[in-house]
Write the structure tokens for this entry.
Amino acid sequence: MMTNALKQHVQNLHLSGLLNSLELRLQEAEANRLPYAQFLELLLQDEINVRDQRMLARRRKSADFREPRSLENFDFSFNPGINRAQIYELATSHFVRQHRDVLLVGPPGVGKSHLVQAIGLEALKAGFVVLYRSIFDLVRELLTQETLAGEARLLKKYLKPDLLVID
């Protein structure tokens, strides 16, 4: 059972992931007679998992994807000309680590937007900072900057991410 003092300590340390699972973990430890180290490891893993989920959610929000897209939801049979192995290789983010550029070319409606957003999502999961922009939004932002300071901020915004996706 969780005491008020224990709850207060967890809150003061900002361990909300641990707080959410503490009561359940205490019951589990008592029922299974877990060793202290294993109990502590489970608690800390709960906190790490919650923090990782929050970090991914923040990075996903700042990436500004138009729609949530994933490789699992992409219909490769729709366009058999797309090399599935190549797309999954891009999803590993090796090209980001190697500081290489990738250009997907094709007519409208073949799945390029879906694929770049899915690849960007995989890069986010791998810990990279991603920014997604349509070419129209990019040009509009460039045209609306009237001062040198504004241009510098905008340039910094586009140079900061590990992966910049221009669709």
